[in-house]
Design a protein that fits this description.
- The radius of gyration is 20 Å and the shape is elongated.
- It folds into 2 domains: about 5-105 and about 230-259, Rossmann fold (3-Layer(aba) Sandwich); about 115-225, NAD(P)-binding Rossmann-like Domain (Rossmann fold, 3-Layer(aba) Sandwich), CATH 3.40.50.720.
- Helix 6 links the parallel strand 10 and strand 11 (about 225).
- Helix 1 packs parallel to helix 7, helix 2 crosses helix 3 and helix 5 crosses helix 6 (about 210-220).
- By secondary structure, the protein is of the alpha/beta class.
- It has 8 helices and 12 strands.
- A 6-stranded parallel β-sheet has the order 3-2-1-4-5-12, sandwiched between helices.
- The structure holds NADP nicotinamide-adenine-dinucleotide phosphate (NAP).
- NADP nicotinamide-adenine-dinucleotide phosphate (NAP) binds near residues 13 and 38.
- NADP nicotinamide-adenine-dinucleotide phosphate binds near residues 16, 82, 89 and 142.
Length: about 260
């Protein structure tokens, strides 16, 4: 397999800030064809710095076909840490199409002194962890994962999402807030105080854009019910955009072995 620095044509699986920043950095460097792929979950995605396609490929075989048909020489999986299926497909498709795969998996958040985190395996377990008595919950799970809240209608929910929840959730005590990060510590403190939040439901997504709510929770002594990450299959693993760019500049036997 040729070394990565010579990869002239790159497909990035995106849907994250990291994917957008990586695409911008590669476009800025020039000299390569770069395409970004989105699942199409966000109704009005931000403007992208490279040509973009939208929608599923039809599984790993479909992604492999797309890589072959487009003549791509490198696949980069920069999807969200909780998007496990597309990452498994990426590993399989890269093998089928004989294209190297770089997996940009950003690290999860780690609890610090003063944090009160309760780790759970999934969203239904997070809802159970709220307990039977009514609480005031700030929900930052993503709009496609909030259906399990219906099992506990006694709580007051404040759900923040980029797009509206559709269809609406028939919960008696529900407020929805449309907003897109990055969020500031001051803003999160004000929000938690204003809504008298007693618990936060979060996924351990990692990254900087959504971290402020955890700093605010620590400052206010609010418990965070944290959904643990799924295992994501990976190719050559890096933690950030610089890691991808570093791999692309590496040459020689170490890189050839990795590829
Ligand atoms: P998923 O469960 O891993 O993927 C489900 C299916 O969606 C995949 O099998 C694939 O369909 C399609 N898909 C996913 N990402 C794609 C991409 N970048 N380009 C083309 N098709 C894609 O993923 P998910 O949790 O639904 O997340 C969907 C997208 O939203 C991802 O791109 C992810 O980066 C972004 N996102 C997810 C979260 C989250 O918490 N899950 C949060 C923020 C952003 P086919 O099998 O038909 O190819």
């Amino acid at each position: 397999m040729p070394p990565l620095y010579s990869a002239p044509s790159i497909l990035i699986l995106g849907g994250t800030t990291d994917a957008r920043l990586l695409a911008a950095a590669l476009a800025e460097q020039g000299g390569r064809r770069v395409e970004l792929s989105l699942a199409g979950r966000t109704k009005a995605p931000l403007a992208m710095p490279v040509p973009t396609r939208v929608g599923g490929f039809g599984g790993a075989a479909g992604l492999a076909d797309y890589l072959r048909a487009g003549g791509f020489s490198l696949l980069v999986d920069a999807t969200h840490p909780f998007a496990a299926r597309i990452s498994a497909n990426a590993v399989q498709a890269a093998g089928l199409a004989e294209v190297p795969l770089i997996s940009l998996h950003r690290p999860g958040w780690v609890a610090q002194a003063g944090d009160d985190w309760r780790m759970v395996a999934d969203v239904p377990a997070a809802v159970t962890a709220l307990g039977p008595a009514a609480t005031r919950v700030f929900v930052t799970l993503g709009r496609q994962e909030v259906a399990p809240l219906l099992a506990a209608p006694q709580h007051h929910y404040l759900i923040r999402s980029v797009d509206p929840i559709d269809p609406p959730l028939p919960l008696p005590h529900l407020q929805c807030l449309l907003d897109r990060g990055p969020f500031s510590l001051e803003g999160e403190l004000a929000l938690l105080r204003h809504h008298r939040i007693s618990h936060i439901l979060s996924k351990n997504s990692g990254g900087d854009a959504a971290r402020a709510k955890l700093d605010a929770a620590r400052a206010l002594g609010i418990p965070v019910i944290m959904v643990a990450r799924p295992d994501k299959p990976a190719g050559m693993l890096v933690e950030n955009v610089a890691g991808v760019l570093g791999l692309l500049h590496q040459t020689g036997p170490a890189m050839d072995r990795g590829a």
